[in-house]
Structure formats: structure tokens, C-alpha cells
Specification:
The complex is a heterodimer of chains A (about 100) and B (about 190).
Chain A lengths: L6 H7 L2 E6 L6 H15 L7 H4 L5 H11 L2 H9 L4 H20 L1
Chain B lengths: L1 E8 L2 E8 L6 E7 L7 E8 L4 H15 L4 E7 L2 E11 H10 L4 H4 L1 H4 L6 E3 L10 E6 L8 E3 H7 L12 E2 L3 E9 L5
Parallel strand pairs in B: 9-10
Antiparallel strand pairs in B: 1-2, 3-7, 3-11, 4-6, 5-6, 5-8, 6-9
The chains are: A mainly alpha (about 100), B alpha+beta (about 190).
Chain lengths: ~100, ~190
């Protein structure tokens, strides 16, 4: 793989970096729990059908369901690049929903 | 595998490169060498296909030459070893130590390829391969001479490494992990 320019690796490896606090961890179980806990916090893509998650009956419910509706990779991307393309797209979607909600009233 | 071919079309030259690579079909996780909030790195080494005697000799020599602390050795497969030294060094010095060793050549290039600019050592299983296991420590007379990463010392507890008494702790109690795609390997 020596001959691939470095930037081409980024999409292939699709790396996601996270920070995990190890404060108060004194046993292997503590460290393992903390690492798994962080992974769970980021892994929102629960449920079998993402579209199903968007069928909310009220606004609070919508926000609650919206985040799980997006894949883990999207959420990771928004966390790591809050001003990036994906984050902006997500914000646009939220803005669109609010507008839509107002016109319905 | 890389295939390249030059075509001459009129006054233009067209270079076509076709490359095949093994599919990266497994997701795994590793820890970053960087100490969060600083520009310091701990020393990570990934040795493939090395005997214990050769590894110990080499790392003891590196400890004497580069005056770095203890190395903690982990088994990744039959003759695959990870070596971790929690001395916190500026990037240039950490790279000098890694380059001095006979560890995997692609691993040495890691920070140049990785967009987070660090070396990464796996701690999770990879396909059929289990997570690394702690084997032994190579003690150094220079233990505590350099700054030592508090976060990486805490992280080593995960593998059952005996508690490390830090003489010069540095950095927060926080580590950086990285999740990435990798190739599925058989044991």
C-alpha cells in the first residue's frame, strides 16, 4: 500500500476518534466499562428501520427520535466537525421541520 | 497490486492507474499514541513475526540508547507483539525511537497516513483475531527519567498490567480511541 497517496486512505479506513475519560478507573473492568459506555453513547443507530424513527407525533418526540434515525457515522461526524457539511445538513433538516411544524398550526 | 499505463492521445499523455487492495471489511478499535490536550506522544511499536529473544534484546538496546522507560509487551498473535512505553515525548523524539526499532514499516508511516496524526495500537478483537494480551514488562534503568503519560498508564490497567508508579505524570486522565476499518485476518 506504499504507493497510495496518504489522503486516499482516509475514506478507506473511515476513522472515528473519541475521547474517553478514565477518571476513577482502578480495575480492568472499570476501564472496559468506560470504553464500552462511550461506544454506546455514540452508537445511536438503534432500531430496524431508520425512517420509522422519524414518524413522531410531537416535536419533543421528533427530536428524541431524530438522533437515533441517523447512522452512527453521521452522529460521529457531527460531533467531530460541528461546523462541517454534515452538521449543517442536519441543522437544515431541523430548521425545515420547525418551519413545517409552524405552517401546520 | 498496481497497474499503470501511459496512453498518448494527440498532444496529451494520459496516465491510467488501476489498483486492487484487499477489502477492509472489519471494524476494529485502537488507542492513540497522543496525549489529549498536548503535542506529546507515548511510544507505540507493532512488531510482526519476531521472536521473544530478538524483541527483548532490541528493546533493551533502545532503552539504553534513547534513555526511555519500561516497555510493556502484548501478544497479538503467534509471533506478533505490541510494545508500549508510556514516556511522553515530543513527536520528533517519539518518531526517532520508533524509526530506530525494527517494527512494521507501514506502522512507522502511521502518523503520515492517519489524519489524526498519531500511531494507533489495536485493543479490540479484529475478525477472528482476539484482543491483545499482556505478556511481560521489560524494565529500564531510565524509568521515570522522562515525563510519563497518566492516561496511558491508566489505560494499561485494562490488560492487567501491574499498577505503575509514575514519577513524572503528565496529561489528563483521558485517552483518545480510534475506530477504523481493517482487513479480516485468520488467526
Amino acid at each position: 500500500m506504499d504507493f497510495i497517496p496518504d489522503k486516499e486512505f482516509h475514506a478507506l479506513f473511515d476513522r472515528v476518534s473519541r475521547r474517553v475519560s478514565l477518571k476513577g478507573c482502578n480495575t480492568p473492568e472499570d476501564v472496559n466499562r468506560r470504553l464500552r459506555q462511550k461506544e454506546k453513547e455514540v452508537r445511536f443507530a438503534a432500531g430496524d428501520n431508520p425512517l420509522h424513527k422519524l414518524t413522531a407525533s410531537n416535536e419533543a418526540d421528533f427530536y428524541r427520535r431524530l438522533v437515533p434515525a441517523f447512522g452512527k457515522r453521521v452522529i460521529d461526524e457531527v460531533h467531530s466537525h460541528p461546523n462541517g457539511k454534515i452538521a449543517k445538513k442536519l441543522k437544515d433538516k431541523l430548521g425545515f421541520y420547525r418551519k413545517w411544524k409552524r405552517t401546520r398550526r | 497490486m498496481l497497474i499503470s499505463h501511459l496512453f498518448k492521445i494527440g498532444k496529451y499523455t494520459l496516465l491510467v492507474k488501476v489498483q486492487t487492495m484487499k477489502k477492509l471489511d472489519v471494524r476494529s478499535e485502537g488507542i492513540s499514541s497522543r496525549i489529549p490536550g498536548t503535542a506529546l506522544h507515548v511510544i507505540f511499536m507493532d512488531h510482526d513475526n519476531i521472536t521473544t529473544e530478538r524483541l527483548v534484546e532490541e528493546l533493551e538496546h533502545i532503552q539504553r540508547e534513547k534513555q526511555v522507560g519500561n516497555f510493556y509487551i502484548f501478544e497479538t498473535r503467534d509471533k506478533g507483539r505490541h510494545a508500549v512505553c508510556i514516556d511522553a515525548l515530543p513527536f520528533k523524539d517519539a518518531k526517532a525511537v520508533v524509526d530506530y526499532s525494527s517494527c512494521d514499516l507501514m506502522f512507522k508511516r502511521g502518523p503520515g497516513i492517519n489524519e489524526y496524526r498519531c500511531w494507533v495500537l489495536r485493543f479490540a478483537p479484529k475478525g477472528n483475531r482476539p484482543a491483545p494480551k499482556y505478556l511481560y514488562t521489560i524494565k529500564s534503568p531510565y524509568e521515570g527519567k522522562n515525563l510519563q503519560s497518566l492516561s496511558h498508564a491508566k489505560y494499561l490497567i485494562k490488560f492487567g498490567v501491574p499498577p505503575i508508579e509514575l514519577k513524572n505524570p503528565v496529561g489528563p486522565e483521558e485517552i483518545e480511541t480510534q475506530e477504523y476499518n481493517t482487513g479480516k485476518r485468520t488467526k
